[in-house]
């Protein structure tokens, strides 16, 4: 969101803002969804009260969905705290596994995009035991939640390029028509 606000006011963007903006742009691709956590949505709602921010926030929110806690979210967040994650990080990670959108058409997220290096590093160190814990928990879940999977936790610029496959193919097809 900061990148959009800076872009609108012709301010220079940081490298992190450029990467975040790239991820935001990909949210418009077919099959892609940009999910934001409830605290971010709450901040955006408050900022939208300021006339200068309202149009950009409306644009951002039109391309994003709020990921909401689903069943098992609280239990999973508590368990993630056992691995040294802060309360806030555990909540974000738990939404990545046991979160859903308003119409409950998705469960979890494929990626959690963050610039929080301690969170990313802790995830890398703890991912295997966390995966084992989820696997042990899975048979005890209601059937519709047994497909729950861990998200990948990465910086926005490290979200795989496969996400851009549709754009790359479109450019290749256009180039072949021009030749």
Pick out its properties:
mainly alpha; 179 residues; 2 domains; 8 helices; single chain; two-stranded parallel sheet; two-stranded antiparallel sheet; disordered C terminus
Number of helices: 8
Strand-and-helix sequence, N→C? HHEHHEEHHEEHEH
Radius of gyration equals: 18 Å
- Based on Cα principal axes, name the global outline: globular
Strand order of the largest sheet: 1-2
Relative helix content = 40-55%
Count the beta strands. Answer: 6
Folded structure, characterized:
By secondary structure, the chain is mainly α. The chain has 2 domains: 1-65, no CATH class; 67-179, no CATH class. It is 53% helix and 9% strand. It is built from 8 helices and 6 strands. It has helices at 2-8, 15-26, 38-47, 54-62, 73-81, 87-98, 117-137, 165-178; strands at residues 34-36, 64-66, 68-69, 99-100, 111-113, 152-154. Strands 1-2 form a two-stranded parallel ribbon. The chain has a two-stranded antiparallel ribbon with strand order 3-4. A two-stranded parallel ribbon has the order 5-6. Helix 5 (73-81) crosses helix 6 (87-98).
Summary of the model, kept short:
The protein is mainly alpha-helical. The chain is built from 8 helices and 6 strands. It has helices spanning 2-8, 15-26, 38-47, 54-62, 73-81, 87-98, 117-137, 165-178; strands at residues 34-36, 64-66, 68-69, 99-100, 111-113, 152-154.
